[in-house]
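Internal ticket #5521
Category: modeling
Description: The requester needs a full-assembly model to guide mutagenesis choices. All entity lines are attached below as received. Residue total reported by intake: 334.
Assigned to: D.W.
Attached entities:
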Amino acid sequence: MNHQKSIISFIGILMLILLSACSGQPIDKKYVIKFSHVVAANTPKGLAAELFKQKVEQRLNDKVIVEVYPSSQLMSDDDSLEALAFNEIQMTAVSLSKYNRFTKKLQVFDLPFLFNDMDAVERFLKHPEGLKLLAVLEDKGFMGLGFWPNGLKQLSANTPLLEPADAKGVKFRIQESDVLEAQFLAVNANPQKLAFGEVYQALQVGTIDGQDNTWSNIYSEKFYEVQDYIIESNHNLLAYIWMINTEFWQGLPQDIQGELTVIIDEVNAAVMIMAIEINASDREKVVQDDPDKIISLSSEQLEQWRSAMKPVWDEFKDEIGEEVIEAALAANNP
Ligand code: LMR
């Protein structure tokens, strides 16, 4: 009897599938967005990814599933760009410094001491020259959904880096960027490209002596626990492009695309505010842990760092384009 029942229900399911195939209507197709990133969930990028997931759950629950994989759980940033190209994951938000092998245009964001503060960054990202950069990877099959700023970076090391001469021979972990490599070479340091997920251990065992990052990454990755000094240099920007695989996007039905576009705009509007708040509160936590670790530079010392690293601009200005650099600089003086 039970056997008969299961044959009948099997035939029923088969008929439903056949009917749906004939009518061309898929049965409740769900789209899965795998979003891989490398930072902790309680960082600006981690929270923005979660916010996106929550909003999609609330408004597109029956149609779209977002799976967020933080902390390099699924893969490194380098692998995630490969996986995005092959639609193995659908979304990522990799640091602008890591697109070096795809385009030279985004190198502008790595120029040392380009932006005075995050207000200037925000102004540039809304300027037509900045906005244009969101589309530079379209021919690689990546569609830019928005810029996600994190913050300005601080140096950390086991020696007190008061002036550029103090960086001589220091092994700094850097992201995959030729500009960042050149800027550390300019102060006679020893830059080493390394995946984010490997930095803590490399600092701990001493294969590198220092690194540079935002307060939110220094705190959430516990870099401050394995570094003697954090130098408030604000020398570079850390920001991301939120990317989706273009073919995946184009394959979505129009109503889903429409709702996702609204959600994407909402997340983009929230991310800068979250980034400012989190970096300020994470800085506080690091200071509370050990105030003696924090080095504030005098304006003369900062000027020394600026002039030691600034020659790097000339090296890259042709690849980047002078008009882009000028627009970025102008954002410092609205
Ligand atoms: C880094 O590698 O230091 C950063 O790109 C990590 C991140 O995504 O914030």
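Resolution: model delivered.
Comment from assignee: The chain is about 45% helix and 20% strand.
Ticket closed.
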